[in-house]
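User: two proteins, same treatment. go.

Assistant:
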Amino acid sequence: MTIQQHDDFALDVEEYEDLARAVEQFGVATSFIDARGDLKVAPEATLRRIRASLNAEPPETGAPLICTPGRHHPELYGYLALENGDTYRVEGQVDVDGYHILYTDDGVRRLVLAAPEYLPQPRRGWGWAVQLYAARSRGSWGIGDFRDLGLIARLAREQGAGAILVSPVHAVAPSADPQPSPYSPASRQWLNLLHVAPGEAPGAERVDLSDLAAAGRALNADRQIDRAAVWALKKEALERIFAVVRRELPVEFRIFATKHQRSLERFATWCAIAESQPSSDWRTWPAELRRPDSPAVAAFAAQHAGRVLFYSWAQWVADRQYAAACRWGVDVVADLAVGFDSTSADAWAFQDQITLDFEVGCPPDVHNPEGQCWGLPPLNPKALVEADFAPFIDMVRAGLRHAGALRIDHVMQLWRLFWVPAPGSAHDGVYVHYPVDALLAILRIEACRRGAWIVGEDMGTVAPGVRDTMASIGMLGNRSAVRNPPHEFPECSLGTSSTHDQVTVAGLLTRSDAADMRRIGKDADFAHIKRTRRALAELAHLDPDAPVGPDEVRIGVLAQYRHVASAPSRVVVATLDDAAGVAERPNMPGTVDSYPNWRIALPRPVEDVLTAPLARDLVKVLGAGGRS
C-alpha cells in the first residue's frame, strides 16, 4: 500500500493533526483507501474549507435514539411524545413504530426512531429497466411520459414481469431549456412536468389541443429529444386546460393540496418566481427572494397567486398520472437521485441544511480515472440531525408515495459522501460521514409502512461492512454484468447487464461505445474494454474478429441475459436499450456537452420494442428458472 500526498500539504504534522481533530468530530474522514488500494490523505485546504462550511458548534439536541418497537432499550427513559401526539412516561420500551420525541430526565431532547428490524422483500422475479424520457410511444409528445409508463407496466405484467426500474422522475425547473439529467433535479419531492401527458389531464376534453398534439407527435421523428420544444408545447397545453378548470377545481385536487400544503406551496412558489426571473438559479435572484420564509416571498406568492395555483395543480396532474401508472400490478421501482442541483428548489428550501461550498462526487477509480463531480450540494450532517431529518424523511415518503420499491442511487450517500470543493477537482475531495444508523431506520419505517422493498446501488468504491449491513436489514444490492460476473451476484440483489452509465450490449459488440469515447477524448481502459468485448463474444459463440450486424447483436443480447438470468439475484432486469439493440449508452459519465447525455430516445415506439421478436425472446430467457 502506498501513501499519496497532495501538493498543498503545507502544514507540519502537529498542525495538520490539530486541524484533522477539529473536523473529524463532525464526520470528516481525513484519509481513505482508494479503489487501487492506495491511501489518500485529505488536502489541508479542503479540510480548512470544510471546517468553515460546517460552522462547527456543539449540537443543540441529543443524538437520535434508534430502537425496535417492543424491545427494551437502556436509554429509553423519560417523557415520550409519540408521533400521534400522545405523551407518557416511558420505561425502556416503545411499542409503536415511527418518529417520537424523548425528553430525558436530565432535560435532553432526543429524536426516537422506532423502526422495524427488516425491510420488506420482493419475490424472485424479473423486470425491465426503463429510461422514461427515451421510452416514447406513438402518442408521445417528443418524450416518454406517465401514460407511456402505464403502457409499459401493462405490457410487462402481461409478459410475467414483476418490476419496472424507472429513471428518476424528479422535478426540473420550469425554464425554457429544461435540465436533461434526471439525476440533477430541482426537487426530489415533486415530479417532472415533462412526463405529463396533457391529453390525459382532467379537463383536457374541454379544450382543443389538436395543434399542440400534432406538433408534439412530430417531435418523435427526431431521435434526439428536444426538451425545450417539449416543454413549450406541454406548458401551453397545461395552461389552456387550467384556464378552463381553475374556477371549478375538483375536490381531489383540494384534498391533495391540503395534504401537501406547505411543501407544495413552497415548490409552486419557487416555480413561479423562477419563471419570472432571467435565471432559475435562486442565488441570482434579488436578495429578498433568496429565502423561502422571507416576507418578500410571501408577498410574491400573494401577488402571483394564480401562477402558484397553476403549478400546484400541474403537480396534482402529474401525481395522478404517475399513481395510475404504478397501479398495473408490477412494482414500479422509483430511482432516487443522490442529490439536487445547487440552483434548485430543494437547495432554496433547504439552504440551511446544505453546504454550497462543495459538491458531491466520487474519487478516481479504475472505471473513471478522473473521478466525478456531480454539481450537487451535500447535506450538512450536523444540520440534518438538528432538523430531525425532515428533508430526508420527506424525500423518502415522496419516493414511495406510489412506487412499490425504491432504488437509492449511490447508496453510500447513507454512510458517507465524497465532498469536492466547488469548483475543484475530485482529486481534492474528502469523505464526510453521515448518521447512517438513523437514515437506515428511517428507510425501514417508511418502507414497512408502504410494504416497499429497497435497492441500494452499491457499485464502485464501497466502504468495508456496508454490504454486510445492507444484507442484514434486507436491502438489496445492485450488480451489473459489466462489472461482475453474474454467478458472483449475491442473492439479496437486483442484477442486470449494465446501468444507465455503462455500455449496452450492442455498443460493446459493435465497438461503437469505445469509438464514442475516443471521439470525445474520454479517458478509459481500452484494453479492459477489448477483453470484456471478447468475453461477451465468446459467451455468445460469436467470432470476435468478424463484422457485427443486427443478427449478431441479437445473439449477443440473448446470451448476455441468459447469463444474467442465471444469477442468484432475487430480481433481474433487462434494459429497454438492449431490447431495442441500442448502441448508445444513456449517459457518458464525466461529460456534459460532448455527448448527448439523457437525450437519446429509443429508435422505435416503446410498444413496438416490447412486442418485437427480440423482446419476446428476452421474456422467455428472463422467465426461465422460476422467475415468472
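Protein 2:
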Amino acid sequence: MRGNLIKSLATVSAMTMASRVLGFVRQILIAGVIGAGGNPVADAFWAAFRLPNMFRRLFAEGAFHAAFIPLFQGKLVQDGSEEAKHFAVEVLSGLVFVLTLLTAIVEIAAPAFVYLIASGFESDAEKFALTTLYTRIMFPYLALMSMVGLASGILNSLGRFAASAGAPLALNVCLIIAIVVFADADTHVTGQAAAWGVFAGGVVQLFILFIGAARQGYLPRLRRPRMTPGVKRLLRLGAPGFISAGAIQINLIIGTNIASQEPGAVSWLMNADQLYQLPLAVIGIALGIVLLPSLSRRVKEGDEIGAARTLNRSVEVSALLCLPAAAAFIVMGAPICDALLRGVATDALGLFGGRSSAFTVEDVAKTGMALALFGWGLPAFIWHKVFSPAFFAREDTKTPMRYALIAIAVNTVVALALFPFFGFLAVAFSTSLAAWLQVSLLAVRLYRQGRFKPDDRLTGRFARIILASIGLAVFLHFSIQYTDNISEYLWNREWISVIAIAIAGLAVYGLLSLVLGAARPSDYKLLMTGGNGRQSRDRTEETEDPNS
C-alpha cells in the first residue's frame, strides 16, 4: 500500500518538478524582462494572471477533483466503466455550457472583473487598461482548464497520473517561447505576448489530456447539457468543495485586491507565490492528487484501517519533505530571490544582447520578505492538501467548506487591519495565518471522528523531522553569511553560491534525518524508485517499526 502511494507520488512529483523547473525559467525571464514594482506591465500581467491561474489550480488540482473523483470512483467500483463514461459526458457538457457563458460575460464586462481582483488599479488608468486587456486575452484559459480538470480527474481515478501531471509543462513552454521571442520588444508588447502564451498553453494542455483519456477509452463527447441526478449531486458536492479546496486561492485573490493599493505589491507577492509553489506543487499538490483516488477507493471498499494508515504515511512523507523547504524560505528568502530573479536572470538575458535583469534590489528585498512569510505557511498549505481529501473521499465537502469560510474571513479581517501598518506584508502574513487555522480545524475534526490518529511511528518521527529542520536552518543561517567568499571560487557568481549552499543544506538535512532517525535509507530508496512492485512493498512493511 505504502509502496503504491509513494510510487504514484514519485511519478506525479517528477512530472511536477519538471514543470516547476520550467516555471522557474519562466519566472526568471518574466522578472528579468518585465521587472516588478517599477513597471506597470508587471503588476497588470500578474493581476490578470491571478484569476485564470486560480481556476487552473481549482479545476486541475483542487475543488473540481474533490467533487468529481469520489463520484467517478463510485461509478467505476459500483456500476462499471460504461456508467462512469456516461457520467463524465454529462459533466463535460454542463461544464462547457456554463463556462462558455461565463467567459462571454467576462469578455464583455472585463473592467468590472478587474475591479474585483485589483480595485487599487482604478487610480492608474494605464495599469487598469493593461489589466483589462490581459484579462480578456487570458480568461478563456478558464474554460479550457475545466475540460483539462475533467480529463485529468478521469485519468487520476484510473491510476494514470503521468499525463495530467505533465500537461502543465505546456503552459510554461508556451510562456517561455512568448517571452524569449519578444524579449527585445517594448515591455507592453512582451506583456501582451505573455498573455497570449497563457491562452496557447491552455489549448495545448487540453489536447494532451484528451489524447490521454482517449487512449484509456474515456474520450468524453459533447452532448446537450442536462440536469441529471449525477450532475445535481456533483453540484451539491462541488459548490462547497469549490470553497473548501480553493480557500487558499480565494485568500490569494483577496490579498491581491488589498495589495493592489500599493504600487508594485502585486508583483512582489506573485513572484514570492511562484517561488514557494515549487515545493507546494511537488509535495502537497502531487500528494493530494495521488491521495484522493487512493482514499476514495478505500472508503468505497470499506477499508477504513487502510485509509487511516495512508493518511498517517502521507503526513509523515509530506513533513519530511516540506519542513526543510519552509526552513530554507524563512532563513534565506531574500538570497533566493536575488539568486534566481536577478543573478540567473541577468546571465540568461546576457544571451539576448547583454541586458541586465529588470528586477531591482528593492524588488529582491520586498519579494524576499514576502517569501519568508509564505515559508511559515508552507507546511499548512501542504497539509491542507493532505487532510482535505480525507473529507472529500467520503463525499463530505460541507465540513471543509465551513472551515474554509472561517479562514477566508480571518484572512480578510487580518489583512485589512494590518495593511495600513505593514503594507503588502500584511497580505502574506494573513494568508499563512489563515492556512494554519484551516488545517488545524481539519486535523482536529478528523481526530475527533477517529479518522486521523497519529500512530507511534508518525509521532516518533515527526519530532525528529522538526529537529533536523532546525539543524538545517542553523546551517543555512551561518552559511549564507559567506556567500561573497564562496563566490570567489565559483566564477564570482553569487547566485551559484546560493544554489551551492542550498544543495549543501539538502545534504546536511538528509544526514541529520538519518542520524536522528527521522528517516531510514530504505525510505530514500523507496522514494527514488517509487516502490518497485510487490517485493518492495513487502520489504517495506516488514521493516516498519511503529515505535521507530
